[in-house]
Design goal:
This protein is mainly alpha-helical. It has 2 helices and no strands. The longest helix is centred in the middle third of the chain and has 15 residues.
Length: 66
């Protein structure tokens, strides 16, 4: 005889905030524009892709020293 039981609860985190483009960077601006167009078209997969690209590209910018 088979016993079916429920597994424990699934904890889902809220979506991460959208990364902000680096000021003055043409690549970041183009990605942000693509993200906006994708959001307008309800293409949330593309929005997510743009967010990843902005986040990864932004890491290439030099950081200010404090």
């Amino acid at each position: 005889m088979s016993h079916n039981t429920m597994s424990g609860p699934v904890h889902v985190l809220p979506p991460a905030e959208w990364p902000t483009p680096h000021p003055g960077c043409a690549v970041c601006k183009a990605l942000a524009d693509q993200r906006h167009q994708a959001q307008t078209a309800a293409d949330y997969s593309k929005v997510s892709d743009c967010n990843v690209e902005i986040r990864e590209h932004k890491d290439q910018h030099p950081r200010r020293r404090r």
